[in-house]
Amino acid sequence: MNGLNPPEGVPSSAEGMLPAKSIAEIPTAVSTLSWLRTPLQLARKKLQQREDQVFLALALVIGALTGLAVVAFILLTERMGMRIYPPGSAAWRRVSFPIAGSLIIGYLLYRYFPYARGSGVPQTKAALYAQEGRILLRTVLGKFFCTSATLASGIPLGREGPSVQVGAGIASVLGRRLGLSQEKVKALIPVGAAAAIAAAFNTPLAAVLFALEEIVGDLHAPVLGSVVLASATSWSVLRLLLGNNPLFKVPQYQLVHPAEFAIYAVLGVTGGLVSVAFTKFLLAMRARFLRLPKKTAWLQPAVGGLVVGLLGWAVPQVLGVGYGYVGDALNGKMALELMALLVVLKLIAVTTSYASGNAGGIFGPALFIGAMLGGSVGTLAHRLFPDYTASPGAYALVGMGTAFAGIVRAPMTSVLMIFEMTQDYAVIVPLMISNLVSLFISSRLQRTPIYEALAIQDGVHLPSAESPWEILLYVRNPCQRNPAGA
Question: Cα-flanking dihedrals φ and ψ of residue 284, to 5°?
């Protein structure tokens, strides 16, 4: 055998294994790839050296992208809902679609998006304090589409909490892709959360306060400037695409008599008690579902769908977020009996839906329950003392903030949010009184805030120290289901 020939069984370059010309081109291709990679590496290194400037610019990008995502969220949910429940649709739809929707989405959550369950706020806080600011792109996409389908099917959860996780996820993905340090990536989480709330509620100031009060837990956090920038940008995107339309259209209110303050205090008491009932019932039911075998997790959301379907068949107002009915209550267009009934039925439907593992938040349901509770108290007070009380709509408005403060434990955000919705100072003092009473009662009867309690059930211990930026002890029980946030 000639030494210049290939061994037996190995084809020569002329026989087609790899042409000599192709072999010669390999160094050129490698050098081309290296030439392309080098500028990218240099650019990334420069970004890392200028993290502070990049951080502010990134806040603008995060605000714009999150605003677009929330607008898409709103449009997709509403249009899907209108197709599933057209005006005058048959009663069987109100039973079948919540069950079918929760069953299908439950399987998708179990099989493909295990970290997209639940609200999104405790998962966002867990990502900030326990998971190095890491939220996966798959979780963001799963949260967006699964929540949209869940809400469109009639499950009475909210889109605002999921929007928080989507916004924080966008921030996390961008920060990590740009190679920012771990601390900078974590600092981007409240930036994305603020942008989400600003667009979801059309309340940019309340969004800033929520990100600092609830997500960070520190009103003096160093990310304040970036949070404000992202919130303003997201809000601008919302106004550009959907117009300057408030979430609720409400008339101007005024205090009729100083004695009304006592009635608002009574509303605070009832709001605090309802908030405690909501929180305890949800946590107790969720604890039961968590104890079930993990292989049944895909089927569990259908339990919530079944409860919602049966309640929705009897009372259609139970289905969905129900912001249209909140608007009716704010304008005094709902009967006392129906509002009182909806407080109970909505509480049952929401807690069951959430506890069973459906994707959706509790912001919207808290506002709904508060509006119906406030409207009930206001209607009753107006019947008893017509010359000394305002219209029931004023109490429905204050009731929204009261329930939000009692359930979410963000009283300052609640006051500012309601003010931004109404742009009326007249409601501020009654709202502060009612919020304070509700917060006092709920914190006394339910020591652990709802988001912290939900995280503990998932094995994540959120900070409760003076400075929440301290290192967090992260404990996971291997016997529990994985926490619904990554």
Answer: -65, -45
Of the candidates 382, 175, 350, the one whose C-alpha atom is nearest the C-alpha of residue 267 is 382
> What domains can you pick out in the chain, each with its CATH number?
51-242 (1.10.3080.10), 260-457 (1.10.3080.10)
Decide: 323 and 364 in contact? Cβ < 8 Å.
yes
134: left (phi over 0), alpha (psi -120 to 50) or beta: beta
Closest to 282 measured CA to CA, from 93, 156, 180: 156
pLDDT at 132: 87
Contact 283, 451 (CB under 8 A): no
CA 18 to chain centre: 55
Q: What is the pLDDT of residue 102?
A: 95
Q: CA nearest 147: which of 182, 108, 173, 177?
A: 108
Reading the block at residue 125, the tokens are 């806080």
Nearest to 122 by CA among 162, 157, 158: 162
Which pLDDT belongs to residue 96? 93
Q: For residue 468, what pLDDT is reported?
A: 41
pLDDT of the residue at 460: 83
Cα separation, 380 vs 384, in Å, equals 6
Q: What is the pTM of this model?
A: 0.84
**3: helix, coil or strand?**
coil
Q: What is the pLDDT of residue 427?
A: 84
What is the per-residue DSSP string for 6-35?
PPTTS--GGGTSS-HHHHHHHHHHHHHHHH
* Cα–Cα distance, 261 to 145 (Å, whole number): 44
Q: How far is CA 470 from CA 128, 173, 467, 473, in A?
A: 11, 23, 6, 10
Distance CA 215, CA 456 (A): 16
Distance CA 19, CA 41 (A): 33
Q: What angle do CA 458, 121, 305 make, to 5 degrees?
A: 75
| Cβ–Cβ < 8 Å for 374, 402 | yes
Q: For residues 286, 289, 294 and 297, what is the CA-based torsion angle, rounded to 10 degrees?
A: -90
Low-confidence ranges of the chain (pLDDT < 50): 1-4, 6-18, 22, 24, 29-30, 33, 465-486
The pLDDT tens digits for 220-231 are: 667 888 999 999
**Residue 149: CB partners within 8 Å, gap ≥ 6?**
80, 101, 104, 105
Rounded Cα distance, 36 and 112, in Å: 35
Instruction: Give the ranges where 112-180 is alpha helix by DSSP (H).
Output: 121-129, 137-152, 160-177
- Predicted local confidence at residue 42, as pLDDT: 56
CA distance 468 to 46: 31
